[in-house]
Amino acid sequence: MAELALFCEDRGHELFSRAITNRLADEAGLAVDIRVISASRGKGMAISQLKGWQRSFERGLAVGKPDLLVVVIDGNCTGFQAKHREIEQLIQTSVFPSYVIGCPDPHVERWCFADAEAFEQVVGSAPPPDPGKCERGAYKKLLRDSIASSGQVVLTDVMEVAPDIVRAAELYRASKAQPSLGAFVNDLRKRLSTLSST
User: Do the Cβ atoms of 66 and 7 come closer than 8 Å?
Assistant: First the structure.
C-alpha cells in the first residue's frame, strides 16, 4: 500500500485528482491510500498548508511521511508550465523527493471537457465549444450549464461528474486535447509505476 498526500484548491480538484490517481494506480497494479491534507479555501490555503506541513517534517514534528506528494493548483492565467515551476520551487525535495504537480490550464473544470466522447457518455450531451478563456468561473459555468441542459441535477458541486468522466476517458485523447492534463497524467503514471516496482 503506497501512501499519497494530496494538496489542492477545493473539493472539485480533490474529486478529479483522486479519480485519476486511483485509475492510474489500478493500471499500475498499486494499492494507494490517498490522504487529503488540503482541499478547501483555495490556492492560498493549499500553498500555506503545504509550506507548514513541510516545515513540520523538517523539524521532526511530523511522522508518517507519504510515499508520494501530489499538488494540484490551477494555472489560472499564467499557464500551466509557469504555475508548475512556481509550485515546484515551494517543494522541499529533501523532505519530499517524490512528487507530482498538476496545473489545470486555466481551471480544473476544463479537464472535464478534455475527452468529448467521455463527457457526452457521462453527462448526456456534447461538450460546448471551448471558449479559450482564462476568466474566473468561465469553465465552471460551462460545466454547470452543460449538466443542466442535459437534464441532470447538481447535488453538491458541478465537479461531482469528474470521477465518472475520468473512468470513461480515453486518456491519450484527453491528454492531447489538454496538454496540462497530459503532463499531469504522464508524471503521475511514471511516479506510480516506480512505486509499484519498488
Answer: no
